[in-house]
Amino acid sequence: MSSPHPTAHVDYLLAVADDALVNAQRLGWWISRAPQLEEDVALANIGLDQLGQARALLAHAGQVEGAGRSEDDLAYLRDERDFRNVHLVEREQTDFGVAMARLLMVAAWQSHLYAALRGSTDATLAAVAAKAVKEVAYHLDHAGRWVVRLGDGTEESHLRMQAALDAEWPHLEELFDGSFLDPALVADGVAVDPATLREPVLSTILAVVEEATLAAPRVRPAVGGGRTGRHTEQMGYLLAEMQHLTRSHPGATW
Amino acid sequence: MVTRTRSRAWTVAAAVPDPEIPVVTIEDLGILRDVTEDDVGRVHVQITPTYSGCPAMEAIRNDLVEQLSDEGYRQVEVEFVLAPAWTTDWMTDEGRAKLEEYGVAPPAARAAGVTPLTLSVRCPQCGSPDTRESSRFGSTACKSLWICNACREPFDHFKAI
Fold first, then answer.
1. Residue B138 is nearest to which of A41, A130, A142, comparing CB atoms?
2. What ipTM was estimated for this complex?
């Protein structure tokens, strides 16, 4: 398809796609490491949903760009500065409480974002969103149950769930920062201004936090920059692992 | 001339089994959206994924090409369509019955706009409604894991979406 603002349009699609792609990569780490077998399966399935959403969005971004790049090219052959995901999804998550706090935040964000994007004037983006919104409802439910179970659990699990929430919370605000976004895309109805999602997303998250007997952290937002390609140190290691096979064996198939 | 009704090509495509739950066909599941064929043996098939990341889509594409080619169609194109988004409401009654017989509890009919996450599910083994969910996510993206409190058997449930 042709777009009146192709560069900004591609950047926006990459932002939505890269959040899902990088989140999928981090979720995959949990396979064989989760506290129980069912949780291995759950996190693998959630990661698979995220990967599927990312693939559809990357393929579409490649078409809008019109330079012949496929979903694989975009996933495996871009360098760190070309990735548009937020810091929230790219940092290591080797603590299960942190993984659930983060999943709660990401799923709450994606639930509201995809719900709004169902009305995008970009028909492909709207179609991906309409499908994805049903999937992330399950992710949100899953994360919410764990946060409540751990927060409203034992003294130890409460402390650790609160610590996890405190650790992730500073990265929440980056999701609502639309300064990277060309206002013309919002005016054209392609994109959703992230700032308009702040209240509903926070409301969704805070309802879970309250039920979990946890406290909303009073912390200053961390410095972001992911939407313009400025990432944390851990992003390079993530990409090294994710892209290693394709880069070491160009064109390999099986 | 392009035929959009139940053509021979549709019948061939409709018989392709789901690779992960082979007792049901892609028509039973509502994955098969459209089949058109023309006079010179070209077929265009539209299928839609159950979930965005469903890994069965490639296998289904290959099976469609193979089955239709075996039936003499010279050129088979398989297109993935996303809109409108697949819903378990598209599953046929026959498909639901086959799933249950196979041991997979079929999805509940979905109220408009609401995802029924808390409805009770009947055990496909003994028929008891006294069941509990053991994991919201199961062996494939489309299923959750349940346990029957009556017969103590675990079973898969096809999630309503």
1. A41
2. 0.81
